[in-house]
């Protein structure tokens, strides 16, 4: 059976229950099993695509970063690299330019297929950004590649719109779980991120399948994720107070990041109507910043993350500079994600504030790393799970408290523009939207 024929068979596996309602427990059980198997298989295919894409992306990103590190002169070409990005944004991207916002929009209201060109464009664009030193991440690229490829699969097998929403949700899980090596967090992230305060539980089966298959595929192909140390923190009155201070600081930092990125994006739209020139100016600005403050803030800045997690002292200015470098890069049109920069921002801030309030620096950095991202993405549950996968289960209570407090302190902003809200934070507490 060919791939298209196999796919069409999978689409037909689940009868239209509304047209043929089950009349007995045996029929209901059969329909449930058929539906579950169908989505395990479809989710597995989505994870397979996500895992392969993440492997290619991560391996290429390692080589691109190593080349730029060895060839220091590459940074001077960042404005020219911005020109290439600008021309691509103008002539090639189309709807793909909306990135993760487009994926969430299609999950909520599946009406038009995600452009197939999104996957190669975001892959090449992110490599290009990092090759010349742009400060960006990798999660956005993984999610967009996974979403584009999974929707292309849905198009091939003629998937109905209502089922596309589930497959795109699975694609988020596959992309996130595979690119960071956190399959459990990938599942929770995909269920949590579309709507704040409401888990998309009807997509549980395909997201589990996609996330674990995607992560397994990356490992099977030979890419090894970094193993982090185990974190432990005994909660006492003093450590709880210090933890809350660190967490509130991380929530404020996430708000600063969202505001800075939005500000640079809006300034560009207002004063530089040309989408071609914005990345050129942005590249020149990042080049100037690197001349003033050094090159530690270029690219992923993983050495800063490793330094913070090692327990070394970190200056309080480091997180702010990473915010500025990344906001300029992303806000002027360069491609890449926000999550890894948020990891760096959170870990360095956590280390700095943790040292001031008496928390172990490495522990505070680990909590700050996941809490800052959780606050900016409105995914405190996923980031709690991510913290447990990366740093062990011994610190489940501090991780959960840190992510929740940072999320509440961050306000109503988000790095995902089309994210919906069933629950909002305000000065008076949590409120249903």
Overall description:
The protein has 433 residues and is an all-alpha fold. It has two domains: 8-221, Clc chloride channel (Orthogonal Bundle), CATH 1.10.3080.10; 237-432, Clc chloride channel, CATH 1.10.3080.10. Helices cover 68% and strands 3% of the residues. The chain has helices at 3-12, 25-70, 78-91, 100-108, 118-131, 139-156, 161-180, 183-192, 204-221, 237-271, 277-293, 302-309, 317-331, 339-357, 361-377, 380-391, 396-409, and strands at residues 195-196, 420-421, 423-426, 429-432. It starts with a helix and ends with a strand. Mean pLDDT is 90; it is low at 1-18.
What order do the helices and strands come in, and which of them pair?
Blueprint: H1 3-12, H2 25-70, H3 78-91, H4 100-108, H5 118-131, H6 139-156, H7 161-180, H8 183-192, E1 195-196, H9 204-221, H10 237-271, H11 277-293, H12 302-309, H13 317-331, H14 339-357, H15 361-377, H16 380-391, H17 396-409, E2 420-421, E3 423-426, E4 429-432
Parallel strand pairs: 1-2
Antiparallel strand pairs: 3-4
Helix pairs in contact: 2-5, 2-6, 2-7, 2-9, 3-11, 4-7, 5-6, 6-7, 7-8, 7-9, 8-9, 8-16, 10-13, 10-14, 10-15, 10-17, 11-13, 12-14, 13-14, 14-15, 15-16, 15-17, 16-17
Give the N-terminus to C-terminus distance in angstroms.
Answer: 48 Å
Gyration radius from CA atoms, angstroms: 22 Å
CATH superfamily of the largest domain: Clc chloride channel
Characterize the overall form: globular
The biggest beta sheet, please? 2 strands, parallel
Q: Would you identify the regions where 5 or more consecutive residues have pLDDT less than 50?
A: 1-18
Number of helices: 17
Number of domains: 2
Q: Mean pLDDT across all residues, rounded?
A: 90
| Helix share, percent | 55-70%
Task: Bin the strand percentage.
Answer: under 5%
Strand order of the largest sheet: 1-2
Highest-level CATH class of the largest domain: Mainly Alpha
| CATH-derived architecture of the largest domain | Orthogonal Bundle
Task: Give me the secondary-structure category.
Answer: mainly alpha
- For this structure, the CATH topology of the largest domain is Clc chloride channel
Number of strand segments: 4
